[in-house]
């Protein structure tokens, strides 16, 4: 687990460096300035807005001291929040629904992605004779971590083909070099993962893409509507206790989303850590072009998004089948709407 933290000093809050920044002094005093955020696969484009807010000091400009803990997958990040070692999760929206099915109320308050960006692909080495999804029966599918958004997407594709998760083996391979090595070595037969991992494997000719959710059109084809993806979510208890801190987090993330709408490739490369590039800057920029449309331009949850997410889970997950899920308790646009009145890139 990688841990990164940065501190906001009082000098920075008062300094000239904040000229033109969106610091919302009028939003009220922060209930707490220290916030622990858990994320699963921070290097992925799925969570790029989080990295931008961190690296460009947008959290710091809001008076926040943010510590980010990076896990192998979203399901592990979720466990950190449920267990109390994290205040907020940068993770997949559908996890709020799975938690509510267990009577644990967590709420999304700023959207990072309006499409999942997840790609399901077959290994050309072990699945050379692939003809249909049914061929995956008895095979091993690599995912970031079991229970993560990648396994959820793969499970949904399997369900549409008449298979269940019990018909395959999900293998946690992470979200970086480990995933690539697992496929190249033949440890897995298929891979559900995200960019830049998938673009790297596409370019090397080692995979055959069979389901893609990197664009809005492809996402609608797979899920039948808008499918919300990465977001910041926290327990309702945390949000109720810390509304001003939650607002500050939303402000920083909306600012990051706006920055990404106009950032050049050079600016992006110069902002993210070198390790994100997988040793190939051209590959990273190529991957960015594949997923740029999937980024939320404003942080707002689309009206039909929560229902699409619930319908997807109900297609294969017994946890939510027949459970009275109240979608209104799983998300809110209130913080983003307020941020949009004051925040600029």
Automatic annotation (TrEMBL):
Subcellular location: Periplasm
GO cellular component: periplasmic space
Main location group: periplasm
Keywords linked to the UniProt accession: Signal
Any GO BP annotation: alkanesulfonate transmembrane transport
Matches recorded under PROSITE patterns: TAT
Transmembrane segments: none
InterPro entries: TAT_signal
Keyword ATP-binding: no
SUPFAM superfamilies on file: Periplasmic binding protein-like II (SSF53850)
Family: Belongs to the bacterial solute-binding protein SsuA/TauA family.
Name this protein carries in UniProt: PhnD/SsuA/transferrin family substrate-binding protein
């Amino acid at each position: 687990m990688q841990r990164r933290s940065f501190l906001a000093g009082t000098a920075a809050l008062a300094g000239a460096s904040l000229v033109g920044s969106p610091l919302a002094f009028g939003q009220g005093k922060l209930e707490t300035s220290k916030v622990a955020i858990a994320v699963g696969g921070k290097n992925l484009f799925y969570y790029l807005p989080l990295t931008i807010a961190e690296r460009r000091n947008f959290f710091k400009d809001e008076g926040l001291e943010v510590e980010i803990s990076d896990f192998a997958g979203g399901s592990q990040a979720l466990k950190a929040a449920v267990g109390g070692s994290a205040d907020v999760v940068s993770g997949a929206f559908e996890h709020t629904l799975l938690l509510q099915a267990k009577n644990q109320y967590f709420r999304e308050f700023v959207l990072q992605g309006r499409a999942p960006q997840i790609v399901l692909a077959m290994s050309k080495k072990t699945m050379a004779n692939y003809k249909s999804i049914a061929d995956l029966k008895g095979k091993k599918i690599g995912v970031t971590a079991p229970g993560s958004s990648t396994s959820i997407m793969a499970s949904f594709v399997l369900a549409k083909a008449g298979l269940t998760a019990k018909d395959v083996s999900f293998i946690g391979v992470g979200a970086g070099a480990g995933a690539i090595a697992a496929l190249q070595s033949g440890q897995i037969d298929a891979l559900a993962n995200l960019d830049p991992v998938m673009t790297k494997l596409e370019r090397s000719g080692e995979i055959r893409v069979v389901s893609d959710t990197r664009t809005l059109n492809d996402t609608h084809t797979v899920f039948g509507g808008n499918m919300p993806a990465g977001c910041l979510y926290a327990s309702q208890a945390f949000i109720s206790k810390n509304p001003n801190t939650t607002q500050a987090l939303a402000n920083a993330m909306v600012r990051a989303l706006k920055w990404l709408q106009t950032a050049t490739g050079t600016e992006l490369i110069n902002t993210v850590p070198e390790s994100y590039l997988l040793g190939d800057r051209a590959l990273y920029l190529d991957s960015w072009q594949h997923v740029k449309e999937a980024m939320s331009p404003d942080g707002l949850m689309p009206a039909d998004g929560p229902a699409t997410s619930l319908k997807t889970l109900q297609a294969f997950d017994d946890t939510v089948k027949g459970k009275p899920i109240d979608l209104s308790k799983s998300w809110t646009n209130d913080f983003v709407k307020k941020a949009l009145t004051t925040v600029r890139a």
